[in-house]
Amino acid sequence: MRKWGKWVAEIREPNKRSRIWLGSYSTPVAAARAYDTAVFYLRGPSARLNFPDLLKGDGGTAAVSGDMSAALIRKKATEVGARVDAIESAVHTNHEPVIDEFKAACGGLLNRVDLNKVPDPEDLDGEY
Predict the structure, then answer these.
(1) What is the pLDDT of residue 45?
(2) Burial call 91-118: b when 16+ CB within 10 Å, e when fewer
(3) Tens of pLDDT along 91-124?
(4) Burial code of 26-64, b = ≥16 C-beta within 10 A, e = fewer?
(5) What is the pLDDT of residues 37-74, one digit of tens each?
(6) How many CB atoms lie within 10 A of CB 90?
(7) Neighbour tally for 65: CB within 10 Å
């Protein structure tokens, strides 16, 4: 948590000194989910996650491509973090109708993001 109240997430790239910035969020859960997304894409099923029970499908045993770019990992992690942040913020401000409307608009993707599937770069534009 930063001194001004935001929670941030970043991850170090394997075998490099550089870091991938994953964003700044209002809630710790959103920052942790963004981190989980990035670490899963970087390390695959062996990744140690904050929320391992939120993996869909076979529990995280699907193969993950190790050659995803940092930009693609950042994009997917920030999308997950932003969605979770919106839900968490709405819950804490007691906007239940907003949560229901947001969940309906996203077609149920908010409850469980499939981290087992490597995103197709061609499908990323205008996906959400």
Answers:
(1) 85
(2) eeeeeeeebeeebeeeeeebeebebbeb
(3) 766 655 655 666 665 555 555 556 656 666 565 5
(4) ebebbbbbbbbbbbbbbebeebebeeeebbeeeebebeb
(5) 999 999 888 899 999 888 654 444 444 555 688 999 99
(6) 18
(7) 10
Phi first, then psi, for residue 22 (nearest 5°) are -105, -5
Nearest to 79 by CA among 30, 121, 118, 27: 30
Contact indicator for 73, 34 with CB cutoff of 8 Å: no
In this structure, how many other beta carbons lie within 10 angstroms of the beta carbon of residue 17?
6
Q: What 8-state DSSP symbol labels residue 37?
A: H
Furthest-apart CA atoms within the chain: distance in Å: 45
Residues in the chain: 128
DSSP label of 52:
G
